[in-house]
Amino acid sequence: MVVRKLRRISSALAVVCAMVSAQTVCAETLDVKAIYAANIDLPGEVETIVIDTLKGETGPDAEIAIQITLGSAFLDGLLYYSVLRADAPMTGGTVTIGDQESVRSAIAPDAILSGVVRSDIIERQLDPRVRSECVERDDKDQCIRSEEFPTPCREMTVQLIPRLLLTDTSGEQLYVNNETLSQRVRFCRNDPVIPSALDFRDELIDELAQNIRLDLAPIQRVEGIRIMESRKDLASEDRDAFREAVRLTKSDQEASCDRFASLEARNPAQVSVLSNIGLCHEVTGELDEAKSYYNRALAVSPGRNSPTQGLRRIASRERAAIQMAARDAARAMVEGEDE
Fold it and tell me: Which residues pair with 142 in a beta bridge?
């Protein structure tokens, strides 16, 4: 039986749905709040990252974007990293030596991000856009002769080319980012808006900073995950109950999950019932139970997207737990050494 932990979530969702206009329908989803893994498993002791002076004409802007984005990675309201610029004063807590007064101690960074960020703009001429325009009209204002006028057109590609390396204090490589990012746009001279290469470059810098944040730090988010609504192979006497369970996702997610759970006995191999019960367990954090139901759903219908994605989310949550456990263990070791 699904543990009842959904009442506050479903009440909040009901308020949101009530505020939505009559033309909009709240999606049939269940809300999952979880911490998902960083793409890279850094050592747990990495907590302070210094961004070295990044070379290249785009380096200074990238420094700021990375510091803001990576330095704003919060988990449960706490910053995951302390992110500093190379020119920042790095002083830490106080240290007492014998009977002497406490003095400030320097903070040694755990890792340093260095490298180059360059940008490039590539333009090429395209075939012109041809427009037909009336050049002669009769006395009834009817067009009697037209001419074609070509409008020059171009294609612009803006690239951001990072060559970034994160190392620990001994110089050992921890992370590399050398993926070129690009945006491409086509435009003609008479378009109402002519694209700006600088705007595209700024967007790519923000994308780079976000990619680094996702690579290096776990992320906490709440997202509405769609339930499965297919009633294929569902016992005929349960179809109304299934529809009611779907409807309740918009107003009372706890009741919705109870309805789905009650359908399992007569529908032990119905893929939507199994997948939706798995999602209910995922919502309440019962990940082993969720995996069991998702795997049962895939045994009935291999390759189905909803249970497959559910297993991927759970794998990421389990990996995040390992990453955070490594962080806790590193902190505990430091605290033990200080005692």
Answer: none
